[in-house]
Design a protein that fits this description.
Layout: H1 2-96
C-alpha cells in the first residue's frame, strides 16, 4: 500500500512536471512570436521612413540641379552682355580719343 501511494504520487508529480514544462514552452513561444512581430514591425517602419527620406533627398537634388541649370543660363547671358558692353565701351572710348 505504501509503495502504491508513493508510485501514484510519483506519477502525478511527473505528469504535473511534464504539463508544466509544455505550458511554459507554449507561453514562451507565444511571447517570442509577439516579440519577433514587434521587432519586425519596428524594422519595417524604420525602413519606410528611410525610403521616404531618400525620396525627399532625390527631390531636393532635382531641384538643386534645376537651379544650377538656371544659374548657368543666367551666367551665360551675363557674360554675353558684358562682352557687348565691353565692345561698346572700348569702341566708344577709342573713337573719343
Amino acid at each position: 500500500m505504501t509503495i502504491e501511494v508513493a508510485l501514484v504520487i510519483s506519477i502525478i508529480s511527473v505528469v504535473f512536471g511534464i504539463w508544466s514544462g509544455v505550458t511554459n514552452i507554449k507561453r514562451n513561444e507565444k511571447n517570442d512570436t509577439k516579440a519577433d512581430a514587434t521587432e519586425l514591425t519596428t524594422v519595417i517602419v524604420k525602413l519606410e521612413n528611410i525610403g521616404n527620406d531618400i525620396s525627399e533627398i532625390k527631390n531636393d537634388m532635382r531641384n538643386v540641379k534645376d537651379d544650377m541649370k538656371d544659374l548657368n543660363v543666367r551666367l551665360v547671358k551675363m557674360e554675353q552682355q558684358v562682352k557687348v558692353l565691353n565692345k561698346t565701351v572700348f569702341k566708344d572710348g577709342a573713337s573719343h580719343e
